[in-house]
Amino acid sequence: MLGTLKLDRFRGFDVYELTNLTRINLLVGKNNCGKTSILEAIHLLVSGSDPLVLARLANRKGVVNDTDAALGQGWEPDISHFFSGHRVAPGAGFRLSSGDGNGRYGQVSVMVEQATLKDRVQSPVFDDDSNQVLPLVLRIAPQIKGRMFDNLPDIPITEDGTLLIPTGVRFRRPWSEILPVRPSVRFVAPDSLDPDHTRTMWDRVLMEGRESEVIEALQILDADLESIHFLTSAGSGGRSGRAGVLLGFRGSGRRAPFGSYGDGMRRLLALSISLIRTANGFLLVDGIDTGLHWTIMEDMWRLVVEAARKSSVQVFATTHSYDCIRGLASLVRSRPEFARDVSIQKIGALDRAVSLDAEQILVAVDQDIEVR
């Protein structure tokens, strides 16, 4: 697990640090304070800053450039917004680091540099007959268990921040050698329940015989629910993450479509399956309480802590809700054995987050102290 996290010149942060991280870390703070950016930083760090992760994070937010006219590539990820000032230029860069106890994740540096003639000649992006000039490259240097990997392939990048990732096994191999056994990482956004990914994760649940845990999670909203079924016929998934899923209930001979239930059921399904799927890894949840009523917050947190313990998952989640915080306090009051597993990290204008342990969370809630 990560014990600390430090960001240097990443997105809107100049220098920022989180300390006293626990198994379950709830990030709170005002809009645009950087909560989601911290989730992204964790994803990049534990992946060794795999450039494909960088691209996926940009694509997830729809931050792309149309390179079709200039390069014939089509829509490509724009990574300029990961850099301070939202621009790329020689010397721009950021560094992410962690004190995780065993140095497994260490740090990663990402720098923009002027491309050399060698970079331009070897770049797989442009044909030999092309008159295009590649001005910049992205250089990534992870440090894992004290070893610095500073000879990874340079990645072409245009002046507007368009990342042009070469394809092929030859390019991907170096990152595989850095982290041959990569930790499982899943980023759960408020609207993320992709039907194909959900089915793949459900297969993992079935193989491990843990479907009862998912059913128990959904019973938080409906105690009569007793089964969940994913249809296997072609096209049953449709375009919706709710299509092709049926729920069975006690005393009912007919199974109900998952789509007939609200966002709360959808969120609990995503949480419970993701906690199993990311065993020995990291679950990053943006808006963990989305779609959930305040009356079930304690049950939701119990589900998260118990599953995270069982699967050895470290959870980082964001919220704007004081009800979500009250639910966490209520859990540690009723289940004091969970106290060492939880913390709140308040993200603000200082150079480090304010860390609250379980005892401080209880005091804040009892005295109605604003911690968001």
Characterize the largest beta sheet: strand count, sense, and whether it forms a barrel.
7 strands, antiparallel
Helical amount among residues, as a percent range?
Answer: 25-40%
Structural class: alpha+beta
| The CATH class of the largest domain | Alpha Beta
CATH architecture annotation of the largest domain: 3-Layer(aba) Sandwich
What is the succession of H and E elements? EEEHHEHEEEHEEEHEHHEEEHEHEHEEH
In a nutshell, what does this entry contain?
This protein has 372 residues and is of the alpha+beta class. The chain has helices at 35-46, 51-60, 68-71, 117-122, 169-178, 195-207, 211-218, 263-277, 297-311, 322-334, 358-366; strands at 5-8, 15-18, 24-28, 64-66, 75-77, 93-97, 107-114, 136-144, 147-148, 155-157, 185-188, 225-230, 245-249, 256-257, 282-285, 314-318, 342-346, 354-356. Strands 1, 2, 6, 7, 8, 9 and 10 form a 7-stranded antiparallel β-sheet that branches. The chain has a 6-stranded mixed β-sheet with strand order 11-15-16-3-17-18, with helices on both faces. The protein has a 3-stranded antiparallel β-sheet with strand order 12-13-14, covered by helices on one side.
Your description of this structure?
- It is a single chain.
- This protein has 372 residues and is of the alpha+beta class.
- It folds into 3 domains: 132 residues, 3-Layer(aba) Sandwich (Rossmann fold), CATH 3.40.50; 131 residues, no CATH class; 70 residues, no CATH class.
- It has 11 helices and 18 strands.
- The strands form 4 sheets. Strands 1, 2, 6, 7, 8, 9 and 10 form a 7-stranded antiparallel sheet that branches. The protein has a 6-stranded mixed sheet with strand order 11-15-16-3-17-18, sandwiched between helices.
- A hairpin with a 6-residue loop joins strand 1 and strand 2.
- Helix 6 packs across helix 8 and helix 8 packs parallel to helix 9.
- The longest helix has 15 residues.
- The chain is globular.
- About 2% of the residues have low confidence.
